[in-house]
Write a structure and sequence with these properties.
- The chain is mostly helical.
- It has a domain at 31-123.
- It contains two helices and no strands.
- It has helices at 8-28, 33-129.
- The longest helix has 97 residues, at 33-129.
Length: 137
């Protein structure tokens, strides 16, 4: 009915299976770890040198074309910069002029408001002294 081994046979089977698996793995492994690492290093060096060669060849082919494009577009870029600078100056001047005009109008509006307020106060005082009766002129 029950097995009173308390798991000892399972632990023994696990240990024996692990040892057998490790032995089979070492027998069937193609190369030792040191050899595998050195082969990976050599392949990475080969790939790196190929990438450097490809980059140098690309620079040789594309470099002159890029310089030619740059020399063709340089005058246009300079022209745009000059025009942009003059446009920015014009906009700045127009903005300053508009702000001056607005400030002048605000100053006049304030002066007119100050003139109207004292007249309103004298009208209120006249109305209060007449006790609500209108006078005809």
């Amino acid at each position: 009915m029950g097995n009173n081994d308390n798991g000892g046979s399972f632990a023994l089977g696990l240990l024996v299976g692990g040892i057998i698996g490790a032995l089979i793995g070492m027998l069937l492994a193609p190369k030792p770890g040191a050899e595998t690492r050195s082969e990976i290093w050599e392949r990475s060096e080969l790939l790196r040198s190929r990438a450097d060669e490809a980059a140098a060849s690309l620079r040789e082919r594309v470099g002159p074309a890029a310089e030619g494009v740059g020399s063709r577009f340089a005058p246009a870029v300079d022209s745009v910069r000059e025009r942009g600078g003059s446009v920015a100056g014009s906009v700045r001047d127009a903005g300053a002029s508009a702000m001056g005009s607005v400030n002048a109008r605000l100053g006049r509006a304030q002066e007119e408001a100050e003139i109207v307020e004292p007249e309103a106060e004298t009208t209120d005082a006249t109305t209060s002294s007449n006790n609500g009766q209108e006078t005809q002129s």
